[in-house]
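Q: Predict the assembly, please.
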Amino acid sequence: MKTEISRRDFVKASGALVVSFTASSLLQPLAQGPFDTHPSHIDPAKLDSWLAVASDGTVTAYTGKCDFGQGMFTVQTQLVAEELCVSIEKVKLVQCDTSVTPDQGTTSGSQSTPTNFNTSDLAQAAATAREALIALAAKKLGVLAEQLTVENGVVRAKGGRRVSYSDLIGGKHFNLAVNSAAKRRSPPEWKVLGKPVPSLDMAALMTGTFEFVHNVHLPGMVHGRVVRPPETGATVAKVDEESVRQISGLIKVVIRNNFVGVVAEKQWQAAQAARTLKVDWKPGPVLPPQKDFCDYMRKQPSYDVMLVDSNDVDDKLKSSAQVLKATYLHPYQAHGSIGSSCAVADVQPDRATVWSPTQSVYPTQHGVSALTGLPFEKVRVIFVRGAGCYGLNAADTVTYDAALLSQAARKPVRVQLTRQDEFISENYGSACMIEQQAALDSSGAIAAWNCEAWTASLGNRPGYDRPGNVITGMLAGFDPETPAPQAATAPKSELRNRSNYVPSYLAGCVNGTCAGAGSIRSERVLTHQVRSPFFTGPLRSPLRLQNTFAHECFMDEICAYVKSDPVAYRLQHLRDTRIIDVLNAAAKAAHWDARPSPKPGAARTGTVTGRGIACVAYEGDNGYAALIAEVEVDQASGAVQPRRFVCAHDCGPISNPDGLRNQIEGGILQGMSRALVEEITWDDRKVTSTDWSTYNTLYLGIQLPEIECVLLDRCSAPASGAGETAITLVAAALGNATFDATGARLREIPFTPDRVKAALTSRG
Amino acid sequence: MAAISLKVNAHVHTVDVDLETPLLYVLSDEMHLRGPKFGCGMAQCGSCTVLVGGEARRSCVMPVSAVKQQEVTTLEGLGTPEKPHPIQQAFIQEGAAQCGFCLSGVIVTAKALLDEKPQASDEEIREALSSILCRCFTHTRMLRAIKRYQRSRA
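A: Predicted assembly structure:
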């Protein structure tokens, strides 16, 4: 019926390419006894940790950055093929496995491209390997390296003499350090990188043969389900194990502190047991009312950071005749992966193997170690793709669930979370409140900008030492990270605008060094982090989206107040060339109608149209984008219908233009869903958005806007991230377009019809 | 528990399961099929969609006993990586996926509609997809792929 290659077979098979010349326990990672990590394969300073050339000329590359659907598998394969001058079919990429890949931390934060595509890590290793192979060929052929050319794994000298990679090194170690001086192939030379190579997993995905973590099967594997506290912060008073005794196939009820789960022979039995198990829960604290959550945040003790402060903002605000103020609100939102999270663990008395969709195999190795009591080096974590995660979904927590249940049941256990398990206790994207103030000078230019932001947080990525940062770890007895109240001090070090707390229009000066993208020198940005009642963690464009929504809408409010065109006025306050270029490119491509907003002569009833713009220097310097939205607003129903988006994008040299477009298009529509409908809701005890009927999203049948991408291929710049730039701008561009169409300002996400109607009612 | 025979992707399988078990669990856990996936378990997202007697059904809420004599076809039953079904080929050509977890819902639902109504209007296609989710929001490419497939059959 099937020719299934399990993950362990895959690792054995791909490992064999390297293993053929190593005498290491790496060969049998799942054999009895310890599977020591193999230093020569893990030390990132060593070339052999990243690459091996087998006797058949196949290149195996090892990466700590993995693919969740954002395309990293294909582009990293392109990168290795490019640097080694081999065809893409010759490259086998092994992703994120604590036994065989270098520790590159977490695949997140638009950092995979900056890390692996510039002058370190995977790219530099591949460049080192090519130069080393050419040097070996020069020696073997007795000619100077400069006289050699390489094509498809064969090094050629003039006159037809040639030698292949496999002849030079096939099956042997390089025994070299990664050379920081090795020369990367430059974009004009590229034959594989920079091309729209179709995603390598496309055929397997479309035909249902791709292996997701949900498809991992081990001999003797049984099924686990968890029983989460139904109310936020509830703790276990009593578990009545007798209540499930009649369920056939039940293996064990597992209780560890407040962690409760069941293990059964079959998944259906585990699901029934989890549903039937009688647990008395002791209620947690009453939750703050959702409708007053911003006031609640403002009153909490907070961890404060002053990012920039020119010390003259209060004076400017006081002395200016024109001061504008506005407050923007962003709700908690879910990652809402389409597949509820799943993991498989095989915890034995002396070691554990875990198949996990985590973004962080090495940190998870430590988390599983803390939960099981096994030394971390006895835990192997193997990444297997789950559903798209968009940040810290329940991938880490379900991995912990599987480890706890497998250890208790003494069998390999697969855990499938339910939709509710995931929705009620994942690490949501943070709720935020952002207050803006601007003083204008007599010419209408911005004389000072003051920004104060509140965010709520609890937990985060577990990292190497905080398993309590996700629900399972906390239920099992580990503490989550909470913000420790602390007053802000004057900023000391140079601004790194990683969360885009600082608007692009500010100069961002600290001690005379100005790292901002803009020109406003009277500037203050103060942030407050308060304890959240719910777990939080990175959700695609974490805080960057929330902050950019507030900055770009407020900028639009100022433009409207001074009756200036939103593109021209932005340009007046920007000095970074790259953000200026994307802004101009978007305006040109969209045939931007240069004039102040709102649109003159628009009807105050019926359906009206408008356009809005937003731009960002993502994380300060990790990608640049400008987005124009065109909307139709039905003023009777309050429905905002996006009609067209034009995005200009600069992420340095483009690794794969088709993959980039896919990210921009998906990011824009996901951003549209987040801007228009997505919001976590709760009552006084519990989260009430627990499935797709109570947490809104935009289904596939929606009326789709047109999307146009303008890609600026900036070959001379470092390669930067591209998965989070476009989404960052959508809410702001839509809010600004709605204002242009109607004169009504939206300051709270999501832009529900009720909120739109309220804004229409209160417009001047 | 009871033995039950199912014809899946043109092969007859006999499995020993509780007859209330959702079809999805039988396909995934007993037959190790990878196409239909557990998304929500509540028939809200579509990622478990399979053809049962030619009709698109949510296998996560369909008891295996309800299949009876009808033939079940999953995403992998339509075509193979080497020889994809024309609708799968259209999706490959359009690069219409990111994570790809939702594809059973999208492809199987669209195929069932267009088998039934080859000339379905854009509105009818949208209607058929109105309870299918793709959280990577690859919507634009997916709709393009469906239209490409529809045109190729005309």
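Residues 78-153 of chain B form a domain with the DNA polymerase; domain 1 fold (CATH 1.10.150.120). The beta strands of chain B are 2-8, 11-17, 49-52, 55-58, 72-73.
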